[in-house]
Amino acid sequence: MLVAHTNDKKRINLVKGWNKEQLEKLRKNFRFVCPVCKKSVRLKLGSKRRWHFAHYGEVSCNLELEAESDYHLLGKEQLYHWFISQNIHALLEPYLTSINQRPDILIHYQKRYYAIEYQCSPIPLSLFEKRTRSYLEKDILPIWIYGGNRLTRKSSILFSLSPIEWAALQPHVQLDNFLLYYCSTTQQFFSLLNVSSLSSQSALSQIKITRLQDCSFASLLGNVDVYDDNWKLYWITIKKKWRYSVTPYPSRTQKYFNDYCLQRKISPWLYPIEAGWPTKHHQWFETSPHIWQTFILIYLLNFPLEYKFTFQDVYRYLKELVKTNICRIRSLPYYEGHFSYAIMSYLQLLLHSGFIKRNKTKEFFRVKEIKYPQSIEEAIKRDEEFVKNVKIN
Ligand SMILES: [Zn+2]
Questions:
Q1: How far apart are the C-alpha atoms of 292 and 349, rounded to whole Å?
Q2: Domains and CATH numbers, the chain
Q3: pLDDT tens per residue across span 125-140
């Protein structure tokens, strides 16, 4: 903690330019208490770590799960100064009694409150959701900024995200979504832009790196000019990977999918060209898009050509797969939607591709059969054609 109260209720904020002598004097004359749990805390003025307050021994309050690392303390302080330097009204570690929360920083910016949570250690998803929703209920927009030390980059465009990182995906003014990281050592922001879901952990995204001193809060949330359209090329590579991948220990979903395909005399690697695309809202599915989209396509074969079906039919079918945990769904507290949005967007893609049509009463009907590729080479070629000719996302 960087803020504590004295026993006579004065707020001591350690980033407000104290020198060691002043603080030692303060420590001699006062007792410090945690603003949240009111238990005594120590002022630590060591030479190795950033000066901070800490609960005694094993004691800590419900809002402080573990000792804060220096990386975290430093980042919090840097971000706080960064907001102040932009003339943004910022409070360090304010205790919001009405929701029993203490964000790292609370700011008031363009008539809106934002709770800045700089999170460098893992927390349970349930706690993440509880905090996020309690802010949103009070009309405070939480901005989770993960420690740069958490960013797991597998290649220039591939990342591995944990459940709390997925859950922190936020709508962006211009793009589909974004996710923020900040490294207090290099003083850089890492923004993941347009994060697409490949599987429960894997994500495809563009990364933008900005030095703290070169950017503003507005530019962090606002329009970006770096977005390139190469993702279509990347996506072909992803589909290729799915077609070549053989996992020695397939997940329950993968196993179900393989059996499901083989029962129908389809090779799981030669899944239909129309499946495995990033459509709007697809992040709701933790399950890889080529799997849940293939389930939909094969389900549609139950309806003969020209035979009418509704969105509800498709939704009910997927809902069963979700209920039995074959298709897994994410929790996205920033989004008001539901995985049904992803299904609807996928039906849109099938409309664009000419696989199905829709009549005036909004019923769908199939106008094509699935033409399964006969080899992986053929599949890749046809995937490339598909991406050229069909409007995706
Ligand atoms: Zn406490």
A1: 14
A2: 3-55 (no CATH), 70-227 (3.40.1350.10), 233-389 (no CATH)
A3: 999 999 999 999 999 9
